[in-house]
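Hi W.,

Here's what went into the run:
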Amino acid sequence: MWDDFVRLAVAKANYWIYIVLMCIGLWGMIVKGNLVKKIIGMNILQTAIILFYVSIASKAGATLPIITHHGPGTDSIQAVGHINPLPHVLMLTAIVVAVATLGVALALAMRIHRDYGTLEEDELLAMMREK
Amino acid sequence: MIWQLEIIILVLVVVCAVGALAVRDLLGAAILFGAYSFLMCLLWAIMGAVDVAFTEASVGAGVSTVFFVAAVFRTSRRTRD
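Here's what came out:
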């Protein structure tokens, strides 16, 4: 029973850590009051999802999805021996999108700091209520 | 795939994520987030996603950390939580 649990926890460790990281990111986005901390939480959430996609691509005993020789005369390519490269390609796009959203969010935070002089959410809400 | 190394890096990733959100200095949070991104890139190199790993190392860890440090220096380093 305990051995089964340990084997499951080690074999699926990526997925457990993915769930933990996603919860940490959501906690940072919701609970933290500082805007930069909220942006860090958003980035942790995004990298957690990328971790999930890269984990579903990996296979036991497979090699990198790079073909060294091809063309006529060589053996046919065995897909079983290679890691699935499709989630990797999707996640390349996700990393670029994550950096783009990070840039926009930090630019907005800097603009807010220039107008209001603070980055704390409760102070910002109080100031907006006074206006 | 060396599973002991992967478990150690997974634990370090969680520690860096909690630290980046818990530390009370925004510059320290930015540096810890850079460490988190580099550990993540190491994890993807272990899992065989080399293209994702080097994109994360250059774009995710490098450019994101520079963005955070620039934004922290242009606003304020202090935070209450």
